[in-house]
Write a structure and sequence with these properties.
globular, 4 helices, 6 strands, alpha+beta, 6-stranded antiparallel β-sheet
């Protein structure tokens, strides 16, 4: 897997990875799009980012895991559901040799949409 700082789109980012990882990244993207249909896509901090009244969620691929970045409050509020995964402030790691919890990604993204919509009010 390689990083390329010239990548400016999520499609371009996904293309950098092996086919098996591309499938995971595409499914995460579709999961986020379904949970946040009004969110905009961009590359920020070198990784795929969704925005809606500010940053919503980010995700990225690494040699052994997928990083999902929903922000610090989401990690706190979902701590029980995130127990099987490595977490730190604002970050959760989903290991590539384990099933990716797409339902949990969707749930957390919907939570973030609700939180960010309050920022608009």
């Amino acid at each position: 897997m390689r990083m390329d700082s010239s990548v400016t789109t999520i499609d371009g980012y996904i293309e950098l990875y092996p086919k098996n990882v591309q499938q995971i990244l595409k499914k995460i993207r579709k999961t986020i799009q379904a949970a946040a249909p009004d969110a905009k896509e961009k590359i920020s901090y070198g990784i795929p980012t969704f925005t809606l009244n500010g940053n919503l969620v980010h995700f990225g691929a690494y040699p052994k895991h997928i990083g999902f970045y929903p922000g610090a409050q989401a990690i706190v509020d979902f701590k029980d559901k995130l127990k099987p995964y490595n977490t730190s402030k604002g970050t959760v790691q989903f290991q590539l040799d384990q099933p990716i919890p797409y339902d949990l990604i969707e749930e957390i993204t919907r939570y973030r949409v609700a939180a960010n919509q309050k920022l608009k009010a």
